[in-house]
Write a structure and sequence with these properties.
The protein is α/β, with parallel strands linked by helices. Helix content is 38%, strand content 15%. Residues 41-43, 109, 132, 186 line the site of D-malate.
């Protein structure tokens, strides 16, 4: 008899964004004439930067000739891309990361979801609440949690991120081994300072724990004092893995390219306490289960680091940040408290009512899609996330419609 992994039965019936997509599609079928504005899932709407397109096309032309054609590439990614990442994203900012420590992949979603499988199934996991659902769901699938009760999985240490702590989680009181952090945060848009991040790095070093640091939204940081990488913090190389993505930065949500940094100094332990290089484990996993990203996509990603590419990417993120600024001011004018939108493309609004009820109201009365905070965890109840990824015209229109819907 073929049996299932029963941990899957503990999961909520569907993934948050699939659930929302279903609701939106039901609404659209009932109102085919209505133009829906999507500020829900953080999906970019602007074209790829010209430098990326040019590199993409050039690489496709290379694939069209036997002499320049490429088959399988290195599983960890081509050296031309890994070198540029190490230099421009880290070394230039004073973070010591080498090309060998970069693993190119097709998305931070996959990497943040897959990484947990190299750790023991009984490690104690600390996960923020609210949180990007992938961290939690993949640990449920792996059997690291008990049943779901009152909006929470048994066995998980939830790190509440609320108004009371300015959406920055406090250090856990009971010991934990694997810690998920995401800054600028999805979904709250909150940012962490260097001293605050240092507290976490110190905690991990003192407790032989490991931090999984999701920095997918780093390019939206405007405040020069904020850390862009956890490796700007002393000692982080021993205790942290960092995830980055070209998705939101350079418009690659449909093109797919991201990377994970696993420093050689980063250690995890056997049951008997022997230290093992995490790099070696992830390399083993990556080479076994992944064949990297296509050659043209890696060339397109490399172009992000050319002088033109850098200027174009900056313009792209600035465009979305103008939207974020507009949204933040508009919701404040409507009388809502909010956080985010200053160094992040997400605005986290205190909706003062049930998240899903507010989501339904905005969908039905304004034809605007946002993301209900409750979908990110119990602490998200009463909140709504608005994404700045859309055209400025649509953002303006959406905020007008929300104002009318609430009048
Ligand atoms: C989000 O809206 O939270 C993200 O776009 C989802 C993702 O990156 O997978």
């Amino acid at each position: 008899m073929i049996r299932i992994n029963e941990n899957y039965l503990k999961l909520q019936t569907s993934y948050l964004f699939s659930n929302i997509a279903k609701k939106v599609s039901t609404y659209q079928s009932a109102h085919p004439e209505r133009e829906i504005i999507r500020l829900g899932i953080g999906d970019v709407t602007r074209a790829l930067p010209g430098a990326c397109i040019e590199a993409f096309q050039h690489a496709i032309a290379e694939m069209a000739r036997d002499q320049t054609f490429r088959g399988y590439g290195p599983e960890q990614g081509y050296d031309f891309l890994r070198q540029k990442i190490a230099r421009h994203d880290f070394q230039e900012h004073g973070a010591q990361v080498t090309a060998e420590e970069i693993f190119v992949s097709d998305g931070a979603k996959c990497d943040t979801g897959n990484i947990q499988e190299i750790f023991a199934t009984d490690v104690r996991v600390a996960i923020p609440d609210p949180v990007y659902p992938v961290y939690l769901d993949t640990n449920v699938m792996a059997g690291r949690t008990g049943a779901y009760e009152n909006g929470r999985y048994q066995g998980v240490t939830y790190l509440a991120c609320t108004e009371k702590n300015n959406y920055i989680p406090r250090l856990p009181t009971a010991p934990v081994d694997l810690i998920y952090l995401c800054f600028p945060n999805n979904p709250t848009g909150a940012t962490i300072t260097k001293p605050q991040l240092k507290n976490w790095v110190d905690y991990a070093r003192a407790n032989k724990a490991l931090i999984l640091f999701d920095a997918a939204y780093e390019a939206f940081i405007r405040d020069a004092e904020l850390p862009r990488s956890i490796y700007e913090i002393e000692g982080a190389r021993e205790v942290a893995i960092e995830f980055r993505s070209f998705s939101k930065t350079a418009g690659f949500t449909g093109t797919r390219c991201a990377y994970t940094v696993v420093p050689k100094a980063c250690l995890a332990y056997t049951a008997s306490g022997d230290p093992i290089e995490v790099h070696q484990l992830w390399n083993r996993r990556h080479t076994t289960k992944f064949n990297s990203v296509s050659y043209p996509v890696q060339r397109a990603a490399e172009a992000v680091y050319s002088p033109e590419g850098r200027a174009q990417v900056k313009a792209l993120t600035e465009y979305y940040m103008l939207n974020a600024d507009y949204i933040r001011k508009a919701v404040q004018k409507l009388g809502f408290d909010c956080v985010g939108g200053e160094n992040s493309p997400y605005i986290w609004i205190k909706s003062e009512r049930d998240s899903w009820e507010f989501f339904d109201l905005l969908l039905n009365k304004a034809a605007v899609v946002c993301t209900p905070g409750a979908g990110f965890g119990r602490c998200g109840q009463g909140y709504l996330r608005i994404s700045a990824f859309n055209s400025f015209d649509n953002v303006e229109k959406a905020m007008d419609r929300i104002q009318d819907a609430l009048a």
